Automatic annotation (TrEMBL):
Similarity comment: Belongs to the glycosyl hydrolase 1 family.
UniProt name for this protein: Beta-glucosidase
Gene Ontology BP, a term: carbohydrate catabolic process
Upper classification of the organism: Bacteria, Bacillati, Bacillota, Clostridia, Eubacteriales
GO cellular component, one term: cytosol
Protein's gene: bglA_2
Domain of life per record: Bacteria
Pfam families: Glyco_hydro_1
Keywords of this entry: Glycosidase, Hydrolase
GO terms for MF: beta-glucosidase activity
């Protein structure tokens, strides 16, 4: 067995990390617009008002807003069959609670989708990739408010109706399970404490206050909003394929100590399985209630009406990100490593990236088989997989990123093995096909793309694009439908 003839090869972007033009053509502020940039020595910070003479990565990003035709042409040159991108909510409804949408914002995405179709690139559109309007965070406490459900459904409906003949594949929320962690409060559900909203100076992201009770209520409201959007989308176009999106971190027990194994099972269930089960199966799994009781979380917010909505609004496909794996140990003294959203105990059998993320292509095969067993009736999409690295531009302008090619080669081999195992994998969109702002660090120095962008953490650069060695390697992979990985 090999990849299917219609397999979707491509790449993935997020509006807040690529578009820029943060207040152009009527766009309002979104939560990422309030995050200041970091660098190799400085962590990312937050302030509830825009400070003069400070660097905000999302304000200009890589200026995809003005370069989109050029960038999509480069993606087409690589042979992309699919481009995952997000619509910036505050470009459509600048404050979130506006009565009417912003026509200039709607027109921009019309143009982007038309450009994709020009090259037979299928758009895969994320409705909310952390781009929640800042006004919703300030005025409504993000998704903690039930009013935000209605605002989201109105926004989703507007997009579904506008692009019903241009977009078939949709994702409701990016990495929705991020809200199961304390760091997910601000980014995933736009929930800030009153103290944090009244700050006058920047603070580190990990200094933001967390309220688990409110955070899980906000996550529940996102589940409800997603289900209502799925129902509405199917009413507008019965051919829509609408998916969940999970940040899948594959967890292994650090040792064969049964306590490590139980701890790993719990971590995997809560972080990876809980949110997927709600959106795929339409109900809360039993294990989460045990966790709620342990953590003192009152789950009376799950009403009978909400249960009905969740059951009626299940997704058509399961999409997920995969970058690395981590280990779980009950021993607080084991060495640790960083990771996407969460780190863990260090796996002595794995190498790490420049940012300390463990490289584990075998874990991708394991994960695909696990998901195929858990949700056997759904097609799977890997919608984020990538390698952040320190790229060097040589004197002749070349960028020799063999390390990135090696990373992707091994992960695509693992995908192929999973397909041979019988996994129904239909798409692979790498993160990100062009250098963009890192969501976690705010850095441009941390580069993911097959295409280099001349933009730097001090705000300098002319935004010019340059093809890396990996550009031509990935083109060959797509041209041969994953057969030639040399």
């Amino acid at each position: 067995m090999s990849f299917s003839k219609g397999f979707f090869w491509g790449g993935a972007l997020a509006a807040n990390q690529c578009e820029g033009a943060y207040q152009e053509d009527g766009k309002g502020l979104s939560v990422p617009d309030m995050l200041l940039g970091g660098d190799a020595n400085t962590p990312r910070t937050f302030c509830p008002q825009i400070l003069e003479d400070r660097f905000y990565p999302s304000h200009n990003a890589i200026d995809f807003y003005h370069f989109y035709k050029n960038d999509i042409a480069l993606f087409a040159k690589m042979g992309f069959k699919m481009l995952r991108l997000s619509i910036n909510w505050s470009r459509i409804f600048p404050n979130g609670d506006d009565k009417e949408p912003n026509e200039a914002g709607l027109k921009f995405y019309d143009d982007v989708f038309d450009e994709c179709k020009k090259y037979d690139i299928e758009p895969l559109v994320t409705l909310c990739h952390y781009e929640i309007p800042w006004n919703i965070a300030k005025k409504y406490q993000g998704f903690y408010s039930r009013e935000t459900i209605d605002m989201y459904v109105k926004y989703a409906t507007t997009c579904f109706e506008r692009y019903k003949n241009k977009v078939k594949y949709w994702i409701t929320f990016n990495e929705i399970n991020f809200a199961t962690t304390s760091d997910g409060a601000y980014q995933s559900v736009a929930l800030f404490s009153e103290e944090d909203l009244n700050r006058t100076e920047p603070c580190k992201i990990d200094e933001l206050k967390d309220n688990p009770q409110k955070r899980f209520e906000a996550l529940h409201n996102q589940f409800v909003a997603s289900a209502l959007a799925v129902k509405k989308g199917h009413e507008i176009n019965a051919n829509f394929m609408i998916g969940c999106m999970i940040c899948h971190i594959t967890w292994y027990p650090y040792t064969c100590n049964p306590k490590d194994i139980i701890a790993c099972q719990k971590k995997d269930s809560i972080f990876n399985d809980f949110s997927g089960d709600v959106q795929v199966r339409g109900e809360y799994p039993e294990f989460i209630f045990s966790y709620f009781r342990e953590e003192g979380i009152n789950y009376s917010f799950i009403t009978d009406e909400d249960k009905k909505i969740l059951k009626e609004g299940t997704v058509d496909m399961y999409t997920f990100s995969y970058y690395m794996s981590n280990c779980v140990s009950v021993d607080p003294n084991v060495p640790t490593v960083a990771g996407n959203l969460e780190g863990g105990a260090e796996n002595p059998y794995l190498k790490t990236s420049d940012w300390g993320w463990q490289i584990d292509p075998d874990g991708l095969r394991y994960t695909l088989n696990k998901l195929a067993g858990r949700y056997p009736h759904l097609p799977l999409m890997i919608v984020e997989n990538g390698f952040g690295a320190k790229d060097k531009v040589e004197e002749d302008g070349a960028i020799h990123d063999q390390y990135r090619i090696d990373y992707f080669r091994e992960h695509i081999k693992a995908m192929k093995e999973a397909v041979e195992d019988g996994v129904n994998l239909i798409a692979y969109t790498t993160w990100g096909p062009i250098d963009i702002v890192s969501a976690g660090t705010g850095q441009l120095y941390k580069r993911y793309g097959f295409i280099y962008v001349d933009r730097h953490d001090d705000g300098t650069g002319d935004f010019s694009r340059k093809e890396k060695d990996s550009f031509y390697w990935y083109k060959k992979v797509i041209d041969t439908n994953g057969e030639d990985l040399a």
